[in-house]
Amino acid sequence: MGDAGESGRRTLFGAEELETPAWALGLEATAQAGPLAVARAVPRTVAILTRWAWQGSRRWTALAVVVHLVSGVVTAFGLLATADVFSRLLAEGPTPERVVAALPALAVVVAALAARGLLDAAAGAVTAELVPRVERRVQTDLYTALVAVDLVAFDDADFTALVDRAEHSVTRIRMGASVVGDLVSGSVAVVASVVAAGIVHPLLAPIVLLAGLPQAWAAVSGVRLMFASTLRTIAQARRLAVVGDLISRRDNAAEVRAFTVGGVLADEHERLATELSREGIRVEQRRNALVTVGRAASGVATALGYVAVGLLVYTGGLALPLAGTAVVAMRAASSAVQTSVFGANLLFEAGLFVELYTRCVEDARSRRRAPAGPAPGAPEVVELDGVTFRYPGQEVPALADVGLTLRRGEVVALVGENGSGKSTLAKLLVGLYLPTEGRVRWNGRDLRETDSAAALEHVALVAQAPVQWPLRADDNVRIGRLDRDDPADRAYEDALGRSGAAEVVDDLPRGRATVLSRAFQGGRDLSGGQWQRMAVARGLYRDAPLVVADEPTAALDARAEHAVFSSLRELSAGGDRITVLVTHRLANVRTADRIVVLEGGRITAQGTHDELMAAGGLYRELFALQGRAYAA
Ligand SMILES: Nc1ncnc2c1ncn2[C@@H]1O[C@H](COP(=O)(O)OP(=O)(O)OP(=O)(O)O)[C@@H](O)[C@H]1O
Which of 71, 103, 219, 536 stands the most exposed, by the fewest C-beta atoms within 10 Å? Predict the structure, then answer.
């Protein structure tokens, strides 16, 4: 909880929680790079976007390159022909002859205009085909990298913030991709008009080019300001989204009302939004001022260009007919420079988001489990040896120096008070987390050296907060093992029956075909306990040799709880599984083969119920407390 704000009002998030992630600081340096770096950045972005487009569709990319280059060349031709028309019209001699002499050039101008129109239409069509392909590729790469990321990365706030920003970058990248073509044809036109001006008089070429520079500088500086501000406000923007979610999401709606904190949240939203909009306004004003200065400077430079033309004519350095050509070239150059500056500006901006996105994809790829050795067999013996585990950025380990051996056929219960490390231990046993120190071995093989996805094929996990899959009811169960061969739905029905989910599905309006989500038309939500029954059914349907159930009955009524524990016991009775139960319902662990007691991340006792009761300690204390509560 934060502190009292300036107004004396309580704020939910304090400044100390608004740390900028380390990767954002690195990107800030890129955004502040000098003009040379900027000049390099735009072609690099063009190259990256073109590569992505090429990977998306070679045919359309090749077509886009051709259309835009031809468009640039046609513009250049049109420009040179216009200049020619002027030279001939303003040349010496009788007017009718001058007009006739100008006709061929005029025909080229008309043809160039017509061709430009057609090419613009073609460019629009090609861009419409290409840009969504680039976007699709960018999204696919991001999500392909993300699904392979090691679970522990999601406990690292730096990483999740980067992912959040990368998801937002996709739109900016799409915008960048849509102007690459315009920049290419604009650049060809700039070159053409500079060359045309240079042919008229060598002095005019640099003048034409220099006139565009202030605008380019202003545009780029504006983007820098904007990007630096985006990076600076990442933490605030995330807070704003979090508060927005608290207000708008259905899951939170009841509690927000019950605790009557709607007003506090709305105030907090306003406070954060005001801070952000203040920053936004400041940046936009500065950007606007820069653009105005840039435009004014470009205007002055253009005026100087006209003065130079006048002086050249006055001093006899330029023939009068050529002065007309010079003016045409300068006007064309100015419009081409403007188009190019606009494109380059968007691409410079897109380039920063490309960098952010690329960083995220690279980071995600580096957070994959290193490809390890071959797939492990079904676990017969699971051993933890000196296992210590620290969550990212945490000093105190969640588990410290844990040693434990589980054997096939055993039912082992993990018990302990809240935060003692049970769920963390459950995730380490199955290889979802790798220990910071020590080893987890299956059949003597270190999980660090095995293929983690292959290991998880042998695991059925009923998580503490299971996913409420927004799928049909039957798919909610079958997603436990989609490729399972299940003739006549026998395994499916069995899992439903054992978990108590059969009656849940039977009561649904469209039975097993009902979609379990309010987000879809005709969808239905379930109660907490009903969801939990579905989660247990999913775990049972997975039919794996290592079953880990983390509080599988916390939300269940007494009858359902009894049914679930009986099923789990029945399943392990065959002797070919290892079953690990995490639970606070100590009455249900009495029959476990072994009970492991965790305190503050360490195993402090283990044994059968009778052994632990005889030994005294935390287990007996907790058991007695629960017993008294039931007896009362
Ligand atoms: N993602 C995380 N990042 C940092 N610390 C965490 C994270 N998840 C858990 N912890 C901390 O690790 C410790 C062990 O947590 P764990 O969830 O394993 O406890 P538990 O015994 O399962 O608790 P409970 O009975 O409440 O479910 C706790 O101190 C907890 O605060």
Answer: 103
β pairing state of 411-416 and 578-582: parallel
What is the DSSP secondary structure assignment for residue 10, as one 8-state letter?
A: B
Q: Residue 591: pLDDT above 60?
A: yes
- How many beta carbons lie within 10 A of that of residue 11, not counting itself? 18
Kindly state if the Cβ of 305 falls inside 6 Å of ligand 1: no
- How far CA 363 is from CA of 149, 163, 357, 434, in Å, comes to 9, 10, 10, 18
Q: Indicate the number of domains in the chain.
A: 2
- Determine whether the shortest distance from the Cβ of 423 to ligand 1 is under 6 A: yes
Q: Which domain holds residue 605?
A: 376-458+580-632
Cα Rg of the chain, angstroms: 35
Structure pTM?
0.79
On whether residue 346 sits in a domain, the answer given is yes
CATH for 88: 1.20.1560.10
For range 280-309, the mean pLDDT: 88
Q: What number is the average pLDDT over the span 69-80?
A: 81
Does residue 517 lie in a domain region?
no
Q: Does ligand 1 lie within 6 Å of residue 161's CB atom?
A: no
Whether 603 shows a pLDDT value over 70: the answer reads yes
Chain position carrying tokens 């059968």: 608
Whether 390 and 263 share a structural domain: no
Q: Which residue from 495, 470, 468 is spatially nearest to 481, judged by alpha carbons?
A: 495
Long-range pairs of 86-91 with CB within 8 A, sequence gap ≥ 24: 86/321, 86/324, 86/325, 86/328, 87/321, 87/322, 87/324, 87/325, 89/321, 89/324, 90/320, 90/321, 90/324, 91/321
**Residue of the nearest CA to atom 12 in ligand 1?**
398
For residue 296, the CA-to-ligand 1 centroid distance in Å is 60
276 found inside a domain: yes
pLDDT of residue 10: 60
Q: Which of 312, 335, 366 is the endpoint of a domain? A: 366
- Single out the residue in 366, 389, 421 at which a domain terminates: 366
390/156 Cα distance (integer angstroms) = 12
pLDDT band at residue 460, thresholds of 50, 70 and 90? very high
If asked whether residues 351 and 392 sit together in one domain, one would say no
Residue 29 lies in a domain: no
Lowest mean pLDDT of 85-94, 169-178, 445-454, name the range.
85-94
